[in-house]
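Meet today's protein:

…
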Amino acid sequence: MKVVLSLLIVCFSFLGFSQSDKKENALFTIRGNIGIPRVIGSQMFRTTFAGLYEANLSANVKLFDNFFIGVGYQNTQFQNNKFLKFQYFNASIPYNTRLLSSGIFLKLGYDKFFSDKNYASFSLNSGLMLNEYFNVNADTSKSNKPFGLLNFTAPYVQPEVSLNFTVEKHLSFSILLSYTTMFYKYDPKAPRFNQFQEVKDSRNRYFMNWINIGFGFNILLNKKTKE
């Protein structure tokens, strides 16, 4: 969380000293990023799964000033935590259960320049997430009945903030922080993990959500330069 707070403080510090209010970004932008998600919502979800990666890509058009709108695709994957193992006689066999989430979203955002080439971006992604559990162990114990859904769809929202550094006329790189809330309560019976006492003892009061700290790029199309 210290990294998250530091990024936010730096970002708002740049905005406070901004002297490039009239600088405009490109008319069309392609924005992408990748990072490692960290579960912070439901304690039960955090106990059973850890993030492997999160990546998204969007195509955007500037509306007016530096406000923009776009559409995009997101892919996120989680894997079960290592302590979850199948006991077979005297052997412990690690699980390899994964949750794959694919989302289609609408993006609304704003670019704020703090120098001639560098800017902060604030945006909100919102859409539908298609989710599927893979490599689920066929556990039939009473604790996992009735079985949960291996496939489910849920709406989600994802505010993002990033610092972007232009390296050439049509390209900038970024450091990004996002916070995703998927409006779906985690069900440990779906990946067949409800037999573990550590999972049963965990709280499950909130929706599935996570933060992502990563790196990205912006391709700037039809960008005009002012002499």
In short: The first helix runs from residue 2 to 16. The longest strand covers residues 151-168. The radius of gyration is 21 Å. Helices lie at 2-16, 43-48, 197-200.
